[in-house]
Specification:
2 domains; Rossmann fold; 5-stranded mixed beta sheet; alpha/beta
Length: about 450
């Protein structure tokens, strides 16, 4: 079992006096069940229900009062009810039972002594298709993603590297080794099953069937909830084309060189987003808070996992030819893995960190990410090479009401004085891209 950072969030949830039942969201195979199994060691009793099992799902079909339902669950698991014990009830694959989803509110209202967690994929699709009455305001959510770079280091037994990674500022002597490890992480990705097999065999070729199995599983899973048989083919195309569009701004009309119209492709992509296989990230046009996304503009597509992306588009063989992620695939891979690290920073929301655009006839500009920090909006530009134009970043800084910007790149950690072509001075944090997941630790060090 690999340690996951979400366990710390689960401990916070368990310590809340007014604790609500928890729904753990995440794509299939990101490690939800394993994380709960590890968390369960903190309890006196752990009751695991998998609602793919018809017998276990059938308990919720009897329309029992909540106390009788709990007794039935205990009877099925051959346990004796006891209110003086800490009991964790984990309802896995909860999307297979609409009554179980609806029952979550009654756990909150009637059995606050229980610690109840539900997990599943495509919950919104199930709710919409089956018209489930979901307990709005009676549950809490956490969102789980593929393993981060820090979690990858822990899984690899790189304890010394983890300790250096957590230091702020990171000592310069560790740069080369951490960069090398980050490139390996970017190549393999953060799916636990992939990492487990790689650590066992250290054979990249042997990973191909596992990657393919994951992608096929996602396709089969999402297709179950297609509105019509015709939409199955649209969704199939969306799954197959999405890795090739990752990191790009996309239009629904003709997505992936298809003849599909905007409406049907938009529906297909939103199905993938509900499955948390992709994220459609919309831009902002402001440099001060609040960051209101402009849904009229083209979104950027973020795929679930960079390792899966590498496999799907055939990039894995190129990793060994370059020392810099920005040196191939038009630099999109560096931006994509940074986006993956940033997405996992906040497990309490599925809202992604947006990018910034300025679109004019003669002068377009685009900054890769804009990060709210206190009363600032901090621009983050991914220029993984040691050189590169910062034209868009300069345009943002001309309009910003503060002097702080960040460049994520392959070089060493340093803070430099910079200025825009118009002469506005600002401070630039040059941060190795493998530290993207520590950005909220570095911003206070940089600014304050």
């Amino acid at each position: 079992m690999f340690y996951r950072n979400i366990i710390a969030e689960l401990k916070k949830w368990a310590a809340e006096p007014e604790r609500k039942p928890l729904i753990l969201r995440g794509a299939r195979q990101v490690g939800k069940t394993t994380a709960i199994d590890m968390f369960a060691k903190l309890f006196d009793h752990y009751i695991y229900l998998n609602l793919e099992n018809k017998e276990e799902a059938g308990i919720f079909n009897r329309d029992l009062p909540v106390d009788d339902l709990i007794k039935a669950i205990f009877f099925l698991k051959k346990l004796s009810p006891s209110k003086d014990k800490r009991i964790l009830l984990f309802i896995d694959e909860i999307q297979y039972s609409p009554p179980a989803l609806a029952m979550m509110r009654y756990f909150y209202e009637s059995r606050k002594d229980l610690y109840v967690i539900g997990a599943g994929s495509l919950l919104e699709a199930v709710i919409g298709k089956l018209q489930v009455s979901f307990p709005v305001g009676r549950v809490q959510y956490l969102f789980m993603y593929p393993m981060t770079f820090e979690e990858f280091l822990l899984a690899c037994g790189e304890q010394a590297a983890v300790e250096i990674y957590r230091q702020v500022p990171m000592p310069d002597y560790a740069h080369s080794r951490l960069l090398k490890l980050f490139h390996k992480y970017t190549l393999i990705g953060g799916m636990p099953e992939i990492i487990k097999k790689y650590l066992k065999d250290e054979d990249l070729v042997g990973l191909k069937p596992v990657y393919q199995s994951l992608l096929t599983g996602y396709l089969d899973d999402v297709s179950k909830y297609a509105r019509t048989p015709a939409m199955v083919e649209v969704i199939r195309h969306a799954v197959e084309a999405a890795p090739f569009q990752a990191g790009n701004r996309v239009k629904f009309q003709g997505f992936g060189q298809s003849n599909y119209k905007s409406r049907e492709m938009g529906e297909a992509l939103k199905s993938l987003e509900r499955a948390m296989l992709i994220y459609l990230v919309y831009p902002v046009t402001v440099t001060q808070p609040p960051l209101l996304e402009d849904n009229q503009k083209s979104p950027r597509l973020q795929f679930l996992d960079t390792g899966l992306l590498n496999y799907a588009v055939g990039l894995q063989g190129y990793f060994f030819k370059f020392d810099d992620l920005h040196a191939f695939y038009q630099g999109l891979l560096a931006e994509h893995i940074v986006g993956q690290e940033l997405a996992a920073l906040d497990m309490n929301t599925d809202k992604k960190i947006p990018f910034w655009v300025r679109e004019q006839k003669q002068s377009n500009a685009e900054v890769d990410f804009v990060l709210p920090y206190k009363h600032y909006v901090i621009p983050l530009e991914v220029k993984a090479g040691k050189t590169g134009s910062l034209r868009s970043l300069h345009q943002f800084m001309e309009r910003a009401d503060h002097p702080y910007a960040v460049r994520l790149y392959a070089g060493s950690l340093q803070v430099t004085e910079a200025s825009t072509p118009e002469g506005k001075p600002f401070k630039l944090l040059n941060l190795p891209y493998f530290l993207a997941g520590k950005i909220y630790d570095y911003l206070p060090w940089f600014i304050e």
